[in-house]
Amino acid sequence: MTAGARAARGADLVTWYRRHGRELPWRRDPTPYRVWVSEIMLQQTTVAAVFPRYERFVARFPDVASLARAEESEVLTEVSGLGYYRRFRAMHRAARELVEKGVKDLPRSLAEIRALPGIGDYTAGAISAIAFDEPVAAVDGNALRI
């Protein structure tokens, strides 16, 4: 594909998104923490299921420190019904690791984000691209279909 064709495809995707993109709460305030929470919640889960729980979760645990202070059982109660609880246990461990290191938010470095428990290539890329505006590709199954 030529550079011009790639640019045209990119422009088409942006146009499509402006017309059809959904208003999602994690897009309104894309802090690293909020992007992380949304990406973990959205793994193997529909947006419709995540919607009400996301708002409640970030109200209860508004930052890395509050998540780290919580008991694991409190975290799991807030995400009850989403399934795949291992992802939330890993997120809780990651928050505790960050706080133990004296870090108040997710690191900016893609490699450091990727090194946290429960964060794979896609999630690390999404956090970097969305929260830090880094030129990183976050390619999931939906992007591959395009």
The helix content, as a percent range, equals 55-70%
- Taken together, the total number of domains comes to 1
| C-alpha end-to-end distance | 14 Å
Please identify, by name, the CATH architecture.
Answer: Orthogonal Bundle
What is the average per-residue confidence, as pLDDT, rounded to a whole number?
89
CATH class: Mainly Alpha
Structure description:
- With about 150 residues, the chain is mainly α.
- The protein has a single domain (about 25-145), classed as Endonuclease III, domain 1 (Orthogonal Bundle).
- It has 10 helices and no strands.
- It has helices at about 5-20, 25-30, 30-40, 45-60, 65-70, 70-80, 85-100, 110-115, 120-130, 140-145.
- α3 packs across α4 (about 45-60).
- The protein is globular.
- The two termini are about 15 Å apart.
- The model has no long low-confidence stretch (mean pLDDT about 90).
